[in-house]
Design a protein that fits this description.
By secondary structure, the chain is α+β, with helices and mostly antiparallel strands. The protein folds into two domains: 35 residues, no CATH class; 133 residues, Nucleoside Triphosphate Pyrophosphohydrolase. Helices cover 20% and strands 43% of the residues. The protein is built from three helices and twelve strands, in the order E-E-E-E-E-E-E-H-E-E-E-E-E-H-H. The protein has a four-stranded mixed β-sheet with strand order 7-4-10-9. A three-stranded antiparallel β-sheet has the order 1-2-3, with no helix packed on it. A hairpin with a 3-residue loop joins strand 1 and strand 2. The longest helix is centred in the last third of the chain and has 14 residues. 24% of the residues are buried.
């Protein structure tokens, strides 16, 4: 089932993604092309308040032209460990520092055309520090009961894949 790369070219090389066009040899001997968005990946963090509420970020996402709910997350810097990314992003975006992170799983959010992998963690033993948003970042933190987040997923208010997957991993792991 594996395809073999024959040749390739970089179409675009930006700050966040690189677009490549590869010529491949398919298992049936035919040649085809694959357009791949190369991405360093990211880390998402599921975090609960002392009352058991899920910490979500409300953030405008330009690609969708809307404000969406999502767990705190950020992209991996080149050669950065996903655990370190998760620790950094949680504190930068929410002002919370995790005492430890538990790995929940990893997801391939757009496997048809992107190399991005998102690593999901559960934050534990958090203490309040301060946020340090990027200059182009505008976020609002909200705490929502777990059951309400599930309702929001089912009614389409939460559509972010990493958030849905993190909550699903948590529910399956802890059978709540």
């Amino acid at each position: 089932m594996k395809e073999k790369k024959i040749e390739g070219e970089t179409i675009y090389n930006g700050k966040v993604v690189r677009l490549e066009k590869d010529k491949v040899l398919c298992p049936n001997g035919k040649e085809s092309y694959r357009e791949i968005v190369r991405h360093n990946g990211g880390a998402g963090i599921l975090c609960f308040s002392d009352k058991g509420e899920v910490l979500l970020i409300r953030q405008y996402r330009y690609a969708y032209d809307e404000v969406i709910y999502e767990i705190p997350a950020g992209k991996l810097e080149k050669n950065e460990n996903p655990y370190d990314t998760a620790m950094r992003e949680l504190e930068e975006e929410t002002g919370l520092k995790a005492g430890k992170l538990e790995f929940l799983g990893k997801i391939y959010p757009t496997c048809g055309y992107s190399s991005e992998i998102i690593y999901l963690y559960l934050a534990k033993d958090c203490t309040l520090t301060k946020t340090s948003w990027d200059e182009d970042e505008w976020l609002e933190s909200v705490y929502i009961p777990l059951e309400k987040t599930e309702e929001m997923i089912l009614n389409g208010e939460i559509r972010d894949a990493k958030t849905i997957c993190a909550i699903a991993y948590y529910r399956m792991k802890y059978h709540e």
